[in-house]
UniProtKB/TrEMBL annotation:
<dbReference type="InterPro" id="IPR035994">
    <property type="entry name" value="Nucleoside_phosphorylase_sf"/>
</dbReference>
<dbReference type="GO" id="GO:0044206">
    <property type="term" value="P:UMP salvage"/>
</dbReference>
<comment type="function">
    <text>Catalyzes the reversible phosphorylytic cleavage of uridine to uracil and ribose-1-phosphate.</text>
</comment>
<dbReference type="GO" id="GO:0005829">
    <property type="term" value="C:cytosol"/>
</dbReference>
<keyword id="KW-0328">Glycosyltransferase</keyword>
<dbReference type="InterPro" id="IPR000845">
    <property type="entry name" value="Nucleoside_phosphorylase_d"/>
</dbReference>
<dbReference type="Pfam" id="PF01048">
    <property type="entry name" value="PNP_UDP_1"/>
</dbReference>
<keyword id="KW-0963">Cytoplasm</keyword>
<protein>
    <recommendedName>
        <fullName>Uridine phosphorylase</fullName>
        <ecNumber>2.4.2.3</ecNumber>
    </recommendedName>
</protein>
<comment type="similarity">
    <text>Belongs to the PNP/UDP phosphorylase family.</text>
</comment>
<dbReference type="GO" id="GO:0004850">
    <property type="term" value="F:uridine phosphorylase activity"/>
</dbReference>
<feature type="domain" description="Nucleoside phosphorylase">
    <location>
        <begin position="19"/>
        <end position="250"/>
    </location>
</feature>
<dbReference type="InterPro" id="IPR018016">
    <property type="entry name" value="Nucleoside_phosphorylase_CS"/>
</dbReference>
<keyword id="KW-0808">Transferase</keyword>
<comment type="pathway">
    <text>Pyrimidine metabolism; UMP biosynthesis via salvage pathway; uracil from uridine (phosphorylase route): step 1/1.</text>
</comment>
<dbReference type="InterPro" id="IPR010058">
    <property type="entry name" value="Uridine_phosphorylase"/>
</dbReference>
<dbReference type="GO" id="GO:0009164">
    <property type="term" value="P:nucleoside catabolic process"/>
</dbReference>
Length: 255
């Protein structure tokens, strides 16, 4: 059986899995896999760390996407070739609304397309929208676990610094195109910044795949520019939510 180019895997290695949990961080992929049954590492190549595990006796893939749209698009394309149809992203994020606190979970219903990769799948007039049922599962998971969550629009940027209008940088300068952009997104009721959901949502919607995204809030940008380094507890809560959501999706698929 042919292997996909970057992940170096073939369909038979996924054991019939059709759902993948997709964090950005490769080490988070391992931490997620360790919480599931019978996890094995299938591949560690570039930013893509891929595990196969079982959740309630059903096969699930965990695959890191790395940071940003280009690498995310490769992971999603190759996983789709291998049989994955639902992608649940679990990320970290910076909130831009004052009422959202560190540690809250943000469920992205749709994303502002501040990326480049999504335009390789559909024109800018096409919405970066999540899959309704997968997103509903994320919300149900938050409610069942009892974590504080907000559902709404995310700004998804190719860059962490200028695209998210950060001035606490080497040059201290933000390109004119992004000056004032954070305030604009705040006024348009955007919840947060992260870096993969625009590509994930656009490509999955365009390709007939299902995608949802949650993220744990590391920093509130109305109070602080750069997140604190230690955020294990926030990540643990977000992992619990995505695992519960995966369980709900798998149950719904069986019914
Ligand atoms: O924690 P992850 O999933 O990597 O997500 C967020 O963190 C990274 C930036 O620090 C970007 O990938 C952003 O989307
Ligand atoms: O502020 C943040 C925090 C995490 N990830 C982002 O993309 N932005």
């Amino acid at each position: 059986m042919d292997k996909v180019f970057h992940l170096g895997l073939s369909t038979d290695q996924l054991n019939g899995a059709n759902l993948a949990i997709v964090p950005g961080d490769p080490e988070r992929a391992e931490r997620i896999a360790k919480k599931l049954d019978n996890s094995i590492c299938l591949a560690k190549t570039r930013e893509f760390h891929v595990y196969l595990a079982e959740l309630k006796q059903q096969p699930v893939v965990i695959c890191s996407t790395g940071i940003g749209g280009p690498s995310t698009s490769i992971a999603v394309e190759e996983l789709a070739q291998l049989g994955i149809r639902t992608f649940l992203r679990i990320g970290t994020t910076g909130a831009i609304q004052p009422h959202i606190n560190e540690g809250d979970i943000l469920v992205s219903t749709a994303s502002v397309r501040l990326d480049g990769a999504s335009q390789h799948f559909a024109p800018l007039s096409y919405p970066a929208v999540s899959d309704f049922h997968s997103t509903a599962a994320m919300v149900q998971a938050c409610e069942e676990i009892g974590v504080k969550y907000h559902a709404g629009i995310t700004a998804s940027s190719d860059t962490f610094y200028p695209g998210q209008e950060r001035y606490d940088t080497y040059s201290g300068y933000v390109n004119k195109a992004f000056q004032g952009s954070c305030e604009e997104w705040q006024k348009l009721n955007v919840m947060n910044y992260e870096m993969e959901s625009a590509t994930l949502f656009t490509m999955c919607a365009a390709l007939g795949l299902k995608a949802a995204c949650i993220a744990g809030v590391l920093v509130n940008r109305t109070r602080q520019e750069i997140p604190n380094v230690d955020h294990q507890e926030i990540e643990r809560n977000a992992i619990n939510v995505v695992l519960k959501a995966a369980e709900i999706v798998l149950d719904n698929n069986k019914a």
